[in-house]
Specification:
about 625 residues; alpha+beta; Beta-Lactamase; Alpha-Beta Plaits; 4 domains; 6-stranded antiparallel beta sheet; 23 helices
Length: about 625
């Protein structure tokens, strides 16, 4: 074994020696007193001791024969490389990958797994896996204490299992064969608690020796250090990425986390569920009891989410009374079940003592990959389900795939025409409810589009399709943050790009739901311009679908007839003049002429009277 000379001059000297022992040539190492680095350094000292150092003044001892020296030298180099990775990154996955890379030539295994314990949920899940059944392993969960992994966690003991199939404690992952398997399991200790297990498997009949277990143990220590280091960094970063009122993560951190989770699930073939939560009629709390009491209620809602969610789940406040919960490795059924528990917990909140007034919550549920293949689409799906849940007709929890067919499937796919129209009206109303100034906007635009389509010579069937496209033209805005929709000033460049993405979000949502292509094209292209300066594709003239050109005129006109967060509504005459001014530039000149003729024929007063309605400018 290798020995290190440990000076007796205090903790810092010991840490320096421990780190220097893993650096070739005895190079001097500067010990930085940052918390994560201190944690790694302390862990490296533990590794040094376990790998052969003793306390006090220790001289290098006899290391045995040449082969043993070679093995120890290779082990020390491998440990140093893993330690370098841990010191250079806060990414657990990179650290675990380095462990797997360095252990394989030293020990030889067929499968490598890192398991984490979630004591709040009393379950264990794999967070990193390599081997022939990595996807199945990553998707499987164990109850705390279940299987050999659970036994190692509960008893805090390493296990050498020569015949896993014959061990009564063993639990096999569904979808994997119960063949010959030898395994070793090493507990990962963080802060005097077992946080997980490192598992190595051999599937060829070869067993692990006690010497190999001893060799693996310092690598397990490094795995535990990586887990603790990532946790400590997250805690140190938490104030900067947290909502000041509730202590949950904020909207920006949530979007980063959602992007990472999508990429992780793409890589490992996993699933996750997303809960989008909104408190119903929360403005009544502030109006009735005041904002300080409303803030207390929001804090209690955050506590309900924290208590209901598992340790492995992620909670955030996205602004106002909107919250999200991200559930890794969780199918939609389990996500909906947790959402029901959230709603039950929120209903148990009493706003003030001696008053029976209670609040309630609505929850939209979406999952990956069932509801979309990217973060933007998943978020839009969850918001769509939330808007449907807020209707109150079918319960406070709605799953996107259950509601999307009733929301956007074409009439010919429905048994009853009246049911189709009712569902469509409800969906459009739910979209407009996101902001007060959009009240009945989609309905108004749809009515104008149908009338203009008739004047333009469209058939009855074409008029119906254009009307449906108009009703759903802004459905992609459900994925926009509420603060962007309600912003009282001009948008920044990043916010403009975010708003412009709504046409693709809307079209993708309709495509995922199986809506007709002509509807998708109306939603996708209703912000194109006649002169080719629009978005998303810069189409010009007759390249733009007729339905999209009809929506462009009516949407812009209706948007001008309402108060906005940053301007007052325009008079009818002013709105009409603006449409005329942009004829041939933004709008189809033939449709503008027909539209203005229809306005004149309707007898609308051009003298400055404002019309009721709401909407967003056709930016």
């Amino acid at each position: 074994m290798i020995g290190w000379r440990v000076a007796a001059g205090g903790v810092l000297a010991a840490l320096a020696v421990a780190v220097a022992a893993l650096v070739p040539g005895g190079a001097v190492v500067r010990v930085v007193l940052a918390a994560p680095v201190m944690l790694v350094a302390c862990g490296l000292l533990l590794v040094a001791r376990r790998h052969g150092a003793t306390a006090g003044d220790v001289s290098p001892g006899h290391v045995g024969d040449r082969r043993e020296r070679r093995v120890d030298r290779d082990t020390a180099v491998a440990l140093r490389r893993v330690a370098d990775t841990i010191l250079s990154t806060r990414d657990e996955e990179m650290a675990f990958a380095a462990l797997a890379d360095q252990l394989e030539p030293l020990v030889g295994y067929d499968a490598f797994v890192i398991h984490k314990a979630d004591r709040r949920a009393r379950e264990v899940r794999a967070v990193f896996a390599r081997g022939p059944h990595a996807e199945e392993v990553m998707a499987h969960r164990l109850e705390l204490g279940e299987g050999l992994v659970g036994w190692a966690i509960v008893h805090d003991e390493a296990i050498l299992a020569d015949d896993v199939a014959g061990d009564p404690r063993a639990v096999f992952v569904p979808g994997t064969a119960k063949g010959s398997q030898a395994s070793l399991f090493v507990p990962l200790r963080v802060d005097n608690e077992v946080a997980g297990v490192l598992e190595l498997d051999r599937l060829t009949g070869t067993t692990f020796s006690s010497h190999e277990l001893e060799l693996v143990e310092p690598f397990a220590d490094l795995a535990a250090i990586a887990i603790g280091n990532a946790s400590l960094f997250e805690k140190s970063r938490r104030p900067a990425v947290s909502d000041a009122l509730t202590g949950l993560h904020d909207h920006g951190h949530f979007r980063e986390t959602l992007d990472r989770e999508v990429k992780r699930c793409e890589r490992y073939g996993e699933t996750f569920s997303l809960l989008m939560i909104d408190l119903d009629d929360f403005a009544r709390v502030n109006d009735r009891y005041g904002h300080p009491r409303g803030d207390k209620v929001l804090q209690r809602v955050a506590a309900v989410l924290t208590e209901t969610a598992r340790e492995s789940d992620y909670t955030a406040r996205c602004g106002g009374e909107e919250f999200v919960v991200l559930l890794p490795q969780t199918p939609s059924d389990d996500g909906c079940a947790l959402a029901e528990r959230v709603c039950e917990g929120v209903r148990g909140i009493r706003v003030t003592q001696g008053d029976d007034f209670r609040i309630s919550a609505s929850v939209g549920v979406a999952d990956f990959p069932g509801c979309g293949l990217d973060a933007r689409t998943i978020l839009a799906a969850a918001e769509t389900a939330l808007l449907w849940a807020k209707r109150g007709d079918s319960g406070p929890v709605q799953y996107y795939r259950d509601v999307r067919e009733t929301a956007v499937l074409p009439p010919k796919e429905r048994v009853e025409e009246e049911s189709w129209r009712a569902d469509l009206d409800a969906m459009a109303a739910a979209v407009d409810e996101r902001t007060a100034f959009r009240e009945r906007h989609s309905e108004a635009v749809a009515g104008m589009v149908r009338e203009l389509a008739g004047v333009a010579g469209c058939s009855a069937e074409e008029q119906a399709v254009c009307e449906i496209g108009a009703r759903l033209h802004d459905v992609g805005k459900i994925g926009l943050a509420a603060d962007i929709l309600a912003k009282g000033g001009s948008l920044g460049s990043a916010e403009v790009e975010e708003v412009r993405r709504h046409v693709r979000v809307g079209a993708d949502s309709l495509a995922n739901a199986g809506a007709p292509e002509e509807l998708q094209r109306i939603v996708l292209h209703h912000h194109e311009r006649w002169d080719g300066e629009g978005y998303p594709d810069g189409l010009r003239g007759d390249e733009i679908p007729l339905g999209a050109r009809l929506v462009a005129v009516c949407d812009a006109f209706q948007a001008m007839l309402c108060d906005r967060p940053y301007r007052d509504a325009r008079a009818l005459a002013e709105a009409r003049d603006e449409i005329r001014r942009l004829s041939g530039r933004q709008f189809d000149p033939r449709l503008v002429a027909l539209f203005l003729d229809a306005c004149a024929a309707s007898g609308a007063d051009p003298g400055g009277e404002r019309a009721a309605g709401a909407g967003l400018d056709a930016e």
